[in-house]
């Protein structure tokens, strides 16, 4: 249950349910004007355009409808991060620990597994920010699966894949 808002839009500790805490949200870091950002072509990434309406439609039909309910534990995540975490947990696209989400998507496409273009759009959004997480993910490399960051926090080493053998 999200915290109630006061008339001014600010939460107070008295508005929270017992055991509920507020997460610190911060805006995405702004690129420095002195350093030009490389384009997708310079990074070796495709230039894909997917509208917000297409992302919402994909999220509603491919994630929410099969689930049958809204994921309460993801209430503070943006829709793109929810899409990416769903992609991380789909075993049919290969392992999510080790390669970046972009490498995993590219590998799945090369193997003919038809990964969704909406997932690619969300991945490219993260790549354009150089993986700097936003909101509750600030400080985490969001180009990698969330599960991988959990394993790192728990002190378990992540598996390193030799992606040069993938011939992509």
Automatic annotation (TrEMBL):
<feature type="region of interest" description="Disordered">
    <location>
        <begin position="1"/>
        <end position="43"/>
    </location>
</feature>
<dbReference type="GO" id="GO:0003887">
    <property type="term" value="F:DNA-directed DNA polymerase activity"/>
</dbReference>
<dbReference type="GO" id="GO:0000731">
    <property type="term" value="P:DNA synthesis involved in DNA repair"/>
</dbReference>
<protein>
    <recommendedName>
        <fullName>DNA polymerase delta subunit 4</fullName>
    </recommendedName>
</protein>
<feature type="compositionally biased region" description="Pro residues">
    <location>
        <begin position="26"/>
        <end position="36"/>
    </location>
</feature>
<feature type="compositionally biased region" description="Basic residues">
    <location>
        <begin position="1"/>
        <end position="11"/>
    </location>
</feature>
<dbReference type="InterPro" id="IPR007218">
    <property type="entry name" value="DNA_pol_delta_4"/>
</dbReference>
<dbReference type="GO" id="GO:0006261">
    <property type="term" value="P:DNA-templated DNA replication"/>
</dbReference>
<dbReference type="GO" id="GO:0043625">
    <property type="term" value="C:delta DNA polymerase complex"/>
</dbReference>
<dbReference type="Pfam" id="PF04081">
    <property type="entry name" value="DNA_pol_delta_4"/>
</dbReference>
